[in-house]
Amino acid sequence: MDNSQIENSIGEIRKRNGTIVSFNKDKISNAIFKALAAASKEDRGLADELTGYVVERLVEHGFSESRQPSVEDIQDLVESTLIEKGYSEIAKAFILYRHERRKLRDEKMKVLNAKLLDPVAKNFDLNCLRVLASRYLMRNNKSEIIESPSQMFERVAVLVGLGDMLYDTAIFSNEGNIKQDIEEAREYLEKLDNFNYKFKIGEFYLNKWHFRALVNHYISLAEAEKMKVGFKELLVMIAAKQFDSYSEKISEYFDLMTQQDFLPNSPTMMNAGGRLGQLSACFVLDMPDDMEKIMKSTSDAALIFKSGGGVGINYSDLRQEGDIVASTSGVASGPVSFMNIINTVTEVVKQGGKRRGANMGIIEAWHPDVEKFITNKTEPGILENFNVSVGIWEDFWDALVNTKEGKFMLRSPKDKSPIREINAHQLIDLIALSAWKSAEPGLIFFDQINKYNVFAKAREGPLRATNPCGEQSLYPYESCNLGSINLANLVKRKADGEYEFDWQRYEEMIRKTTKFLDNIIDVNLYPVKEIDTASKDSRRIGLGVMGVADLLYKLQIPYNSEEGYDLQCKIAEALTYYSMEESVALAKSRGKFPLCSKTEYPEGKIPIAGYYEKPKDTHYFEWDALIDKIKKYGIRNVLTTTVAPTGTLSMLADCSNGMEPTFALVFEKRVTVGRFFYTNKIFEQVLKDNGLYSEEILEKIGDNYGSIQGIPEIPEWMQKIFVTAMDIHWADHLMAQAVWQEWIGNAIAKTINMPYDVSVDDVKASYLLAHEMGLKGITVYRDGSRHKQVLHMTSKNAKKTFEVIPSSYITDYVSQHISNSYIKTHVDNALKFKPPEETPIENTVVEEVDEDTLCPTCKNNLVFVEGCSLCIECGYSGCTSG
């Protein structure tokens, strides 16, 4: 028999979990090839030849279609065949490879508390599984893991698929005006236990929480008079398998997540198909100057924290400290005291039972207590569950940049009457000094946020608050569902061997994930009724990205180059264009969002700065045609895109964070014995391909702030491509944020990294440049600025041996686009080259590790990225979205 006949005679093999699968000799060949590679003898032809011998030996040992070999049988024969054929060195490498694989399997099973690994667990690396186990897998009352990775992703995919199913034209009518017995459907909510795994869609069973979502989604559509059938009839149709075709949709959503192409925000993966059922990451509440309403917002915040979300609140409507309270003749305690109430609630209510919540506290620049607010967090232990930001409007900015005196009036929150005059220049200096010292407050530019706010007309007022990380501007009681596409997975190889971005697959993924996030709105169990109403009135979603830095590494394009900025700009434009186009298609089939007719969409306006501010001949897409479609059909979602923090999600997707540059190519992980270095996988492979990989070079990079800049062994071309956050000038960080912001509907979660030796004037200049670039907010992080430094990526021997300068692209931009003399003077001075110190800059990270600088879950070290602290070991994040 020839090899193909021999292979066919075996037919199947028995896997470790007992399942029988088709025999595939390519898997043997790949294993042998890896052993050859480990022995520095990469030879695909030899691997195939040796595989042929192994297949022959399988037949000789009596294996056949009726007597399947096990995986272990095959591996034993590979070892003996290599030895018999005189490849003892390769056999040794294979034995070591087999040992390492067994060791890895054992580690994975220990992490998952499992006796066998499911397909997802096999494909995900160990770090990804640690994140899953720590954050997302369901546990019992003893805190034991009770589901596998496949089961987790399946419960999410099934829930999302139900969102599609109820819009089937057999049961749904967009025209509406059909009345059904809604109370009949509500009765099923009282007997959920009777419907646990009673129904299924194809091969996918619905648990009782899926069934609850089905009932609630049906009720919502029936209340809108759009359901053609009663709920009992719907159940009969499901039992009769009339909707089994939707199992393909469920599988599609399952594959999106398990192939690490896309992940929704953390609460969706924690709670979908579970008791809590709350799927949104971010919320905004109001805080009016009324004690009863203050307590209502406090209670609502507690419910949001309990369900896994974070809260943003603008405290500017609360009267200033010391103001007279007419009803009691007492004095007001001021907004900061009420922030302390929310901070305490956050402290005691864990998110979804897993971690404390997150808050954004905002006070606008005109508030009489703004100076106290600005300096409040410069000392440790104050409002530790808060990010804080100052809200900026046109009047303050005009006083700052257009007047020498800088006169600016603080006003009463009660009636906007004048309280006292301050100097805008001194206030911005105070903000910059505080951020230089402690990385807070941030700035939120409400004038930029509302510049193209098409929703203001419907809401009868401007946006005045954001979620905890600042990337989602929301009206009171609105929520948003976020998700991120892994761009690093969208690289394909051309016929000439070069790599390129896969634009067609990107478009397909945008359309699928837009629908995914729209479905989440329908199957969500909101913690407060007002949130349910407000969220469905606008149907706001936030589709974003992760893996930008890894994508650019793969394409060998420097992050802070003209080519890098141009590619990021095109990717951002495509994201919003295709998501809005898909949202119009959903409006045609499912209906536009309820308040659409009251917005500026029917007037032909859109919330995208790039459409108005970039010359039309530079647009990659036909925006005017899209606007015509919106005017004709409406749009399903008021906004569709944002770039949210993805710290934990990026670890799960095995890619870089959001649109941030990599924070370090190599960093030292603290171990009890010796030194262990974590290396970016793409960079590690390039080092190996170029014969540069060694423990010595990793140590040098680790001791150079995780950067390869200035290391003589690393070639110049590699130093240009593999840049890190600390290699990039703060002005180039702003440029990257700006090219995304031009085309993103909401805002960007981005940290503007600065070295510890920058001045307060540099921080101030970053604010001026950020506003001039049209950014909606800015978060500055000066290395070493926190009282308890969180970034432990270097050893005590670390020294910075390089200086960071702005790219020619950003200096040209400032020269050509900044015309205001005040702004230009400050920015030009900040961008001037500062001679390097005569001695290398010592690492400022202290070696004594304070308990509060460690991850609250696993006690490992934290890094600060995307405005959030992130554990690089278990995936804990201070942000709710990712």
User: Rg, please?
Assistant: 29 Å
**Class of one domain, according to the CATH hierarchy?**
Alpha Beta
Quick one: biggest sheet? Answer: 9 strands, mixed
β-strand number: 29
Helix content: 40-55%
Low-pLDDT ranges = 788-794, 838-849
Number of helices: 34
Protein model, in words:
Strand 14 (407-411) and strand 15 form a beta hairpin. Among the domains are: 3-136, no CATH class; 149-259, no CATH class; 282-459, Anaerobic Ribonucleotide-triphosphate Reductase Large Chain. With 882 residues, it is an alpha/beta fold. The strands form eleven sheets. Strands 5, 6, 7, 12, 13, 16, 17, 20 and 24 form a nine-stranded mixed β-sheet that branches. A two-stranded antiparallel ribbon has the order 1-2. Mean pLDDT is 91; it is low at 788-794 and 838-849. The protein contains 34 helices and 29 strands. Helix 8 crosses helix 21.
Features:
single chain, 882 residues, 29 strands, Anaerobic Ribonucleotide-triphosphate Reductase Large Chain, alpha/beta, 34 helices, nine-stranded mixed sheet, 44% helix, two-stranded antiparallel ribbon
What is the topology?
Elements: H1 3-10, E1 12-14, E2 20-22, H2 25-38, H3 44-60, H4 71-84, H5 88-112, H6 119-123, H7 126-136, H8 149-165, H9 182-186, E3 200-201, E4 204-205, H10 208-223, H11 231-239, H12 247-258, E5 262-264, H13 266-271, E6 282-285, H14 291-307, E7 310-314, E8 324-325, E9 330-331, H15 335-348, E10 350-351, E11 355-356, E12 359-364, H16 370-375, E13 386-392, H17 394-402, E14 407-411, E15 418-423, H18 424-438, E16 442-445, H19 446-449, H20 456-459, E17 479-486, E18 491-493, E19 499-501, H21 503-523, H22 529-538, E20 541-546, H23 548-555, H24 562-590, H25 609-613, H26 623-633, H27 647-653, E21 666-669, E22 676-679, H28 681-689, H29 695-702, H30 716-721, H31 730-741, E23 752-754, H32 760-772, E24 777-778, E25 780-782, E26 799-800, H33 808-817, H34 821-831, E27 841-842, E28 862-865, E29 868-871
Parallel strand pairs: 6-7, 7-12, 12-13, 13-16, 17-20, 23-25
Antiparallel strand pairs: 1-2, 3-4, 5-17, 6-17, 8-9, 10-11, 14-15, 16-24, 18-19, 21-22, 26-27, 28-29
